[in-house]
């Protein structure tokens, strides 16, 4: 159930890429930055209810007659995993930007490094290696959440530091929310998010 919700939320952000591609192809550099900013705002907006739902999923699982031991294990896993929700969504937005303007190599490098880190982190935290405590499922979730955070931070650093992206004014007036663009992103991405869980 939790995986389906995460897949649906992540699927919504597939609307960011075509919107940026359209603006970039038309030469509307300012709109490229505006779409990216609204994508990050959408990530923030969806993170709050997403975390709230995942943190209370144990109550629903008990009502669906799941064994308490399974519910406790799942709840411990989700309590750690949910902290990686916004970084995962934020990374999806930045990835859409970078790939849409034909600069995918940084994304590939970051994903490869994060995958290696996650693999080592899973082994270390789940089994209690190298002086770390044995955390089992919580260790797996913690490693995944940290990996998502690192992916988002590294790609954000790339976006902020790459001079060729300055023309898009990516973080200008970041505090301003544009409901029209938000709705456009949801309108395109929501059906894809629904299809992802069917």
Report what the structure shows.
- The structure is a single chain.
- The protein is mostly helical and 198 residues long.
- It has one domain (2-197).
- It contains nine helices and no strands.
- It has helices at residues 2-12, 16-25, 29-55, 57-63, 68-81, 85-100, 105-127, 137-161, 179-197.
- Helix 7 packs antiparallel against helix 8 (137-161).
- The longest helix has 27 residues, at 29-55.
- The radius of gyration is 18 Å and the shape is globular.
- It starts with a helix and ends with a helix.
Q: Secondary structure elements and their pairing?
A:
Blueprint: H1 2-12, H2 16-25, H3 29-55, H4 57-63, H5 68-81, H6 85-100, H7 105-127, H8 137-161, H9 179-197
Question: What are the key terms here?
Answer:
198 residues, mainly alpha, 77% helix, globular
């Amino acid at each position: 159930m939790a995986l389906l919700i995460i897949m649906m939320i992540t699927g919504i952000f597939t609307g960011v890429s075509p919107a940026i591609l359209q603006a970039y192809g038309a030469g509307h550099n300012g709109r490229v930055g505006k779409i990216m900013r609204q994508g990050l705002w959408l990530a923030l907006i969806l993170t709050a209810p997403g975390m709230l739902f995942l943190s209370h999923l144990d109550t629903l699982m008990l009502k669906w007659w799941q064994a308490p031991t399974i519910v406790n294990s799942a709840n411990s896993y989700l309590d750690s995993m949910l902290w990686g929700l916004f970084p995962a969504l934020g990374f999806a937005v930045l990835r859409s930007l970078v790939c849409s303007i034909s600069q995918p190599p940084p994304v590939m490098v970051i994903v490869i490094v994060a995958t290696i880190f996650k693999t080592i982190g899973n082994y270390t935290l789940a089994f209690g290696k190298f002086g770390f405590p044995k955390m089992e499922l919580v260790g797996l979730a913690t490693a995944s959440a940290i990996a998502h955070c690192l992916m988002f931070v590294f790609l954000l650093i790339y976006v902020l530091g790459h001079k060729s992206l300055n023309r898009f004014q990516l973080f200008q007036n970041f505090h301003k929310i544009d409901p029209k663009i938000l709705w456009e992103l949801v309108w395109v991405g929501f059906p894809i998010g629904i299809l992802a869980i069917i």
